[in-house]
Amino acid sequence: MRSKTLLLQNWRCHQSPIDFAAITPDYYSETLQRVEYAPSAAKPEHIMHSALATPRAALMAVFAAFGAIFGTFSGSVPQLVANYGLNNASYGFGITLMVAATVCAMSLSGFMARHFSHRHLLLALLPLTFGLMAALFMSTAPLLFYILAALLGLVSGAMDVIMNAEGGQIEVDLQRPVYMAFHGSVSLSVAVFAILSSLLSTNYGTHASILAASTVVIAAAFLVHRNVPVRQKTATAPRKAKPELRAAFTRPLLVIGMAAGLIISVEVTALLWSSKLLAETAPQLAAISGLGAAFFGLCNAMVRFPSDGLRARFGDLHVMMTLVWLAIIGFAGLGLTTSFASNVFFFALVGMGVAILVPSLLAMAARETPMNRAAGISVARLIAGAPRIVAPTAFGEVAEIASTRVAFGLCAIVLLAAFVFMNVLRMMKHDVAPAKLTKPHPQS
Predict the structure, then answer these.
(1) Is residue 311 a contact partner of residue 256, using CB atoms and an 8 Å limit?
(2) Out of 76-85, 245-254, 281-290, which region has the weakest mean confidence (pLDDT)?
(3) Are 434 and 19 in contact (CB under 8 A)?
C-alpha cells in the first residue's frame, strides 16, 4: 500500500508516466525523497505519523523483546542448571546444540525471506521464540533441556536474521545509519531483564521471570502488526547471474563470517556463563548474579546508541578495531580476578568492547548481497557457525576441568584471532562508511 501511494505521489509531483521497468531497489526511497521535498507538494498523511507508529519503532520493540528473552535466560542460568541437575560440561553441550540449530536456521533464512515477508515472519517467530523459552524454564527433565534448547536455537536463529534484514532495509529507506540503535535496544533490554530475572528466579522461581518478559514480547508483536508493512519484492537478478547464495560466497564475506563466528562465540559465552561465574565467586550474592550480564548489556547499549555517527564518519572497521581491545582486556581481567565487583567491572568492559562488532559485520555482510540482504546475513552466519558450534562445549569442558575463570581468560585469545580477520578485511580495503552507501542519488 505504501509503495502504491509513493508511485501515485511521484506521478502527481512530476505529471509524467511511470516506467515500471526502470524501477530499482532504491526507487521507492528516491521517490519518497522527491515527494517530501517537492516545493508544491504537501506531505502525505502517512509520512506525518507519530514516532511510535513507524516500522523503525516497531523493529526497536522487536529487538527489545529479543533482548528480554535472552536477558531472562542469562540471568536465570544458575537456577536452570540446578533445576535440570547439570554440570558445566553438560550445560555447555546443551548450548552447543542450541548454537548448532541456530546456525542451521540462519542458513535457511534467506530462502524464507524470498518466500515470506519480514512482517509475517516476525509475527510468527517472535511468539514462538518466547514460547520455547518459557517451556525451557518450566521443564526439569534433562532430556527436555537438550530438545528445547535446540528448538529455541532453531527459531531464534531465523528470528535473528529476519529482524537484522529488516533493520538493514529500514536503514536504506531512511538514507542514514540507524542500524546500531536496533542493537542498542537489544543490549538495554538484556541489561534490564538479566538482573530482573536473577532477582525473580532466585526469590520466586523461573515462572516469575517468564511473566516479566512476556510484557515486552506482547507489546512488540502488537507494534509489528500495526506498523511493519509487507514490503514489495526487490528487482530480481538477471537470469545469467549466478545463483544467489553461491554468488554470495565472496572472499570478503568469508572473512566477515569467520570474524563474526569468533566474536559471537565469546559474546554468547559472556552472556550465558556470566551469572554462573558470579554465583561461584560469591554464592551469598546469587540473587544479583545477573549483574554481570546486566552491566554487559548496559555498557553494550551505551556504545551502540551513539555509534551510528561514528560508523558514518570513520567506517565500520576503524571503530571495530579500536573497541575490540577493550573486550580483550576485559576477558583477560575475568581470567585473573577473584573479586565479585571486579568481575562485574570486567563484564562491563567486555560489553563495551564487543558492542558494535557483530552488528557492523552483519551490516557489511548485508551490503555484499543488496538484492537480498537476508541472504548475505545468512551466508555470513553459516560461515560463522563452525567456531560458534565448537565454543560452548569447549568452554564447558575447560570450565569443568580447570575453572570457569580460566575458560573466560582464554576468550581473550579468541578475540585476538578475530582482530586478525578484521585486519585482513582492512587490507582488502573493504571498509566503507554506511553514510556513503546510503547517500541519495543527486536529483536531476
Answers:
(1) no
(2) 245-254
(3) no
CA dihedral sign of residues 87, 89, 94, 95: positive
Q: Where are the beta strands (DSSP E) in 53-167?
A: none
For the record, the C-alpha cell of 333 comes out as 581481567
What is the identity of the amino acid at 344?
V
pLDDT digits (tens, 9 = 90+) for 55-98: 889 999 999 999 999 999 988 888 888 899 998 889 999 999 99
How far, in Å, CA of 17 to CA of 77, rounded? 61
Can you tell me which residue has the cell 565472496?
A: 250
Mean residue pLDDT across the chain: 79
CA-based end-to-end distance of the chain = 27
Residue 212 · residue 301 · CB < 8 Å: no
Q: How far apart are CA 193 and CA 272, in angstroms?
A: 13
> Which of 174, 178, 234 lies closest to 440, judged by CA?
174
Only one residue has cell 552447543, namely 96
Half-sphere exposure of 196 (CA within 13 A, CB side): 20
CB 213 within 8 A of CB 72: yes
Predicted model pTM: 0.70
What's the CA gap between 315 and 425, in Å, rounded?
12
